[in-house]
């Protein structure tokens, strides 16, 4: 099944980034007319057109009328720098080593790294002078999803499947399990999770849609009725396995969504959607989604009907990870010559969202709904901090 065990990955990107200790002044302003922004994806197997960070960067460059280019694999950062890129974004933490080499060799080029921090020689987290950090807090939504799933399972068994062995994926797997543990502690239950050992911080990772499908089918056979796949485009394999189960109570938590995949519900529409399950997620709504206040998003922000239909399997809820605002900020800072910074993608920033539960909303008990809203509100105000060993 080509499974890989994840062990002690939390320090890999940090160790790789130690080479980025040679500080130089932040590169100056680069007018849009002469700027070129570039995405460096982690592997030759990753198509930049399907990488969510690369897509967001391409869209941001297009809005700013700036040239865009992408490359994959270990040699990509150096190659992109040589091609005249003025801003290079490493799309996940596994690019840290090659990105650090390129940054050391090209001090006049701006760099940014998703899901890992640049560090100095003493291993103290700090922004490299020409390197920004995209601090992704997807663990916040994953934690809430784990808590919700523990309260909505009918079998007492949940599952999570990883794809790329990067920090953002691992943090979500860990946080999902932490949310399950929190529910067990609060309610005195013993919900189990397949695919992640929360004590050992090890999990199940697979590298193709076929292997995701086989892994998901195996977990379903072991009793899992809610599955969170975190395998990018390979999530389609999990959808096939869930569809093949032919059971509406075997459901997915769909990851990899962006705000373009959402619709907003008014309060009245949300109430009307809380009717016995019909396979629909509520009435069609075309209004723009406002995600700046997220504590009620479980009822009022939904996955569009078209996206649900395209998945082809029952979806309980979704995790939105939208990099568009972060990429806009990186490009704006680069063209203005602003200092390197840490750019958040989080529940508070609106880049991370746990969506509503669609047709499964009636299964949310009042106690569970209130608990989720309370936790989300605490995260918003800083009263509750979700952290994993894999966070920046």
Please characterize this protein's 3D structure.
A hairpin with a 4-residue loop joins β9 and β10 (202-205). It contains 13 helices and 17 strands. The chain is an alpha/beta fold. The strands form 4 sheets. Strands 3-2-4-5-6-16 form a 6-stranded parallel sheet, with helices on both faces. A 6-stranded mixed sheet has the order 8-7-11-12-15-17, sandwiched between helices. It folds into 2 domains: 4-136, Rossmann fold, CATH 3.40.50; 138-322 and 348-381, Rossmann fold (3-Layer(aba) Sandwich), CATH 3.40.50.2300. It has helices at 12-16, 52-63, 76-82, 96-105, 138-152, 167-187, 209-221, 235-245, 267-273, 297-300, 305-311, 324-336, 366-381; strands at 4-5, 36-41, 67-72, 87-90, 110-114, 131-136, 157-162, 192-194, 196-197, 202-205, 226-230, 251-257, 262-264, 301-303, 315-321, 342-345, 352-354.
The sequence of SSEs as H and E is EHEHEHEHEEHEHEEEHEHEEHHEHEHEEH
Radius of gyration: 21 Å
Q: How many separate domains? A: 2
Strand percentage, roughly?
15-25%
Structural class: alpha/beta
Tally of individual helices = 13
Task: Fill in the CATH topology of the largest domain.
Answer: Rossmann fold
Largest sheet: 6 strands, parallel
Q: Major sheet: order of its strands? A: 3-2-4-5-6-16
Name the CATH homologous superfamily of the largest domain: Response regulator
């Amino acid at each position: 099944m080509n499974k890989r065990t994840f062990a002690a990955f939390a320090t890999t990107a940090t160790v790789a980034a130690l080479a980025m200790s040679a500080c130089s002044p932040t590169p100056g302003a680069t007018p849009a007319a002469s700027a070129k922004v570039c995405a460096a994806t982690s592997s030759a197997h990753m198509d930049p057109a399907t990488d969510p960070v690369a897509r967001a960067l391409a869209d941001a460059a297009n809005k700013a009328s700036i040239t865009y280019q992408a490359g994959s694999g270990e040699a990509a950062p150096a190659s992109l720098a040589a091609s005249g890129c003025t801003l290079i974004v490493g799309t996940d933490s596994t690019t840290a080593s090659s990105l650090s080499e390129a940054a050391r060799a090209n001090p006049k080029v701006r760099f940014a790294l998703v899901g890992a921090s640049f560090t100095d020689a003493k291993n103290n987290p700090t922004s490299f002078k020409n390197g920004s950090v995209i601090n992704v807090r997807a663990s916040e939504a994953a934690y809430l999803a784990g808590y919700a799933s523990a309260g909505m399972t009918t079998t007492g068994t949940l599952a999570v499947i990883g794809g790329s062995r990067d920090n953002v994926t691992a943090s979500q797997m860990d946080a999902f399990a932490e949310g399950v543990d929190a529910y067990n502690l609060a309610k005195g239950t013993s919900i189990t999770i397949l695919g992640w050992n929360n004590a050992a911080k090890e999990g199940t990772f697979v590298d193709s849609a076929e292997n995701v499908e086989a892994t998901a089918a195996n977990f379903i056979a072991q009793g899992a009725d809610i599955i969170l796949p975190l395998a990018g485009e390979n999530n389609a394999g999990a959808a096939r396995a869930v569809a093949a189960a032919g059971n509406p109570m075997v459901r997915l938590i769909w990851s990899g969504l962006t705000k373009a995949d959402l619709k907003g519900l008014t309060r009245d529409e949300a109430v009307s959607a809380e009717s016995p399950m019909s396979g629909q997620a509520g009435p069609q709504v075309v209004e723009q989604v406002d995600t700046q206040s997220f504590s009620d998003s479980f009822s009022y922000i939904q996955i569009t009907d078209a996206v649900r239909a395209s998945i082809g399997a029952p979806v309980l809820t979704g995790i939105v990870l939208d990099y568009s605002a972060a990429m806009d900020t990186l490009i704006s800072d680069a063209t203005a010559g602003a200092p390197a910074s840490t750019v958040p993608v989080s529940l508070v920033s609106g880049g991370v969202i746990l969506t509503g539960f669609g047709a499964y909303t009636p299964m949310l008990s009042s106690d569970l709904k209130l608990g989720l809203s309370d936790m989300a509100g605490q995260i918003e105000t800083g009263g509750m901090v979700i952290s994993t060993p894999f966070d920046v």
